[in-house]
Specification:
The protein is an alpha+beta fold and 164 residues long. The chain has 2 domains: 81 residues, no CATH class; 79 residues, no CATH class. 26% of the residues lie in helices and 29% in strands. A hairpin with a 2-residue loop joins strand 8 and strand 9. The longest helix is centred in the last third of the chain and has 16 residues.
Length: 164
């Protein structure tokens, strides 16, 4: 990525390659080079600068929409990262439509209520696991895997309760 800047380091435009560059006056320049001066018809000087890509912070969530900015004498595209505000697992406020917190504010989470089944579905054991466990229990008389899957299934139902 490149920036076209004026002599005051103000961004005039953004370029993604230098093979054909549209000058600020609307004219075209082919095979432009970094740090090369461009002139518009009025004689104003512009420069093409390479943008350095920089990452700041830690975490898996991007915290900004990076735009080139002039920092410490260079153009930089700073992508800032942070830890997610909500853990990877779904956290919801509540499933009771009439519940309120200690301040009297309703705690019902309508989005969760509309989507709890999909949360459960993604957390349940796979159909393949269920089929094997069912076969082993009914045909082979071994209930160990089926019992373990039932424990997992109940844990998912506890984690993602049905709305009341």
């Amino acid at each position: 990525m490149y920036v076209v800047e004026n002599e005051k380091h103000e961004k005039i435009g953004i370029l993604h390659n230098l093979s054909m560059v549209k000058r600020p006056d609307g004219g075209m320049t082919s095979n432009a080079k970094v740090d090369e001066q461009l002139y518009d018809e009025g004689g104003t000087v512009y420069f093409i600068r390479k943008v350095e890509e920089v990452s700041e912070g830690t975490g898996s969530q991007i915290a900004n929409t990076p735009q080139p900015e002039y920092v410490d004498g260079k153009w930089k595209l700073i992508t800032k990262y942070k830890e997610p505000a909500v853990p990877a697992e779904i956290i919801y406020q509540g499933t009771d439509k009439d519940a309120k917190n200690s301040d009297g504010v309703p705690t019902y989470d309508e989005f969760y209520a509309d989507n709890y089944k999909s949360y459960r579905q993604s957390a349940y054991p796979s159909v393949d696991e269920l089929m094997v466990a069912l076969w082993e229990k009914e045909v082979e008389g071994r209930a160990t895997d089926a019992d373990a899957l039932e424990v997992k299934r109940q844990a998912v139902k506890t984690k993602y309760p049905a709305p009341e």
